[in-house]
Design goal:
Belongs to the NTAQ1 family. One of its GO terms (cellular component) is nucleus. This protein has 191 residues and is α+β, with helices and mostly antiparallel strands. 22% of the residues lie in helices and 18% in strands. The protein has a single domain, classed as Roll (C8orf32 fold). The chain is globular and about 45 Å long.
């Protein structure tokens, strides 16, 4: 059974959702959780314009349009899947059903350039392969577009930066599975 975890006990840096989720996966692993029940969700599209509701950065009831967003899903046997989204104002965690209903909603009322795709990556694979030197957060003048996390960049021996491979929504890499939002809902038995 999943151990309870409070949002305030998690490593969090605004604008670094992928690193926040990497830290969360690492925390669950260090606490002895079975990572086979965890998946990382990268939410994006070809235009990198994905609306999400119920985010800390939301203004009023409207959505925030991110270039991508990353959350963690736990789907243990016989239990409703849970979503850990450190940028959300929903419960932490909330059910996947609630996250889809309130944060993702439906693509039906959106223009095609805002339709979401989801890359589902096993958490163990994500911990093993994800690498970011944070170069995507540097402006052309060399300044940072957001305050850096207090810990060093997450790097692997193979590369300093592969975030773009996770964000692109083509099924041509060994980095999990890519779904349309509707196919993702179907995979998790949501209407």
């Amino acid at each position: 059974m999943l151990k309870t975890l409070r949002r305030e006990d998690c490593v969090y840096t605004s604008c670094y959702c992928e690193e926040n989720v990497w830290q969360l996966c690492s925390k669950f692993r260090s606490e002895g959780e079975n990572l086979q029940y965890f998946n990382v969700l990268f939410i994006s599209n070809e235009q990198r314009t994905v609306p999400l509701w119920k985010q800390r950065s939301s203004v009023g009831e409207g959505p925030v349009v991110w270039d991508y967003h990353v959350v963690l899903v736990w789907s243990g046997p016989g239990v409703e899947p849970l979503v850990f989204d450190l940028d959300s104002i929903l419960d932490f965690p909330c059910t996947l059903q609630q996250f889809v209903r309130e944060s993702l909603r439906s693509d039906q009322q959106l223009l095609p350039q805002f339709h979401r795709m989801v890359r589902l990556v096993p958490a163990g694979l994500f911990l093993q392969t994800f690498s970011s030197d944070r170069s995507h957060m540097k402006r052309p003048d060399g300044t940072w577009s957001a305050t850096l996390p207090e810990y060093p960049p997450i790097l692997t021996p193979d590369t300093n930066f592969n975030l773009d491979q996770f964000i692109q929504m083509k099924q041509d890499l060994d980095l999990g599975w890519v779904y349309s939002l509707q196919d993702f809902k179907t995979r998790f038995n949501m209407v």
